């Protein structure tokens, strides 16, 4: 898992019990999962959502429970799409820019039409971090 590798690379501790599978990919799955997390004795300092939809549910649940984003809990999401800037709390996100993703898709379609058969291809795309108001420094030295 990418999160675990990054944490290890930077010498940051990670407890496997803090990695939670929402069991689905929609708004409700994010909402219910965070509702369950809020029942625990200690709250996380940050939550990473796997998509726009999941993160919408995460934000709604935190707000309904009077948890301040990012003062109490930071939220970051995967999916670097324009809608992230227009959520209840403008969401910090990481992902491939939609323009880059769309250009790659169009390029692949053109190749398919021109060559009739492409075979299996893998294309690596580099995600970017877009910082917005949903994350705050929580005392861990980022150096």
TrEMBL record:
Pfam families found in the cross-reference section: Peripla_BP_3
User: In what residue span(s) does the Transcriptional regulator LacI/GalR-like sensor domain sit?
Assistant: 2-135
User: Which keywords fit this entry according to its UniProt record?
Assistant: DNA-binding, Transcription, Transcription regulation
Q: InterPro entries from the entry?
A: LacI/GalR-like_sensor, Peripla_BP_I
Entry protein name: Substrate-binding domain-containing protein
């Amino acid at each position: 898992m990418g999160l675990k590798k990054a944490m290890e690379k930077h010498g940051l501790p990670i407890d496997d019990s803090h990695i939670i599978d929402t069991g689905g990919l929609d708004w409700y799955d994010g909402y219910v999962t965070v509702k369950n997390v809020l029942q625990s004795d200690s709250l996380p300092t940050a939550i990473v959502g796997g998509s726009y939809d999941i993160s919408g549910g995460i934000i709604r649940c935190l707000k309904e429970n009077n948890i301040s984003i990012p003062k109490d809990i930071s939220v970051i999401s995967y999916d670097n799409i324009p809608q992230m800037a227009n959520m209840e709390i403008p969401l910090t996100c990481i992902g491939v820019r939609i323009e880059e993703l769309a250009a790659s898709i169009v390029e692949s379609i053109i190749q398919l039409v021109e060559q009739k058969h492409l075979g299996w291809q893998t294309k690596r795309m580099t995600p970017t971090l877009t910082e917005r108001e949903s994350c705050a420094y929580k005392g861990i030295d980022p150096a």
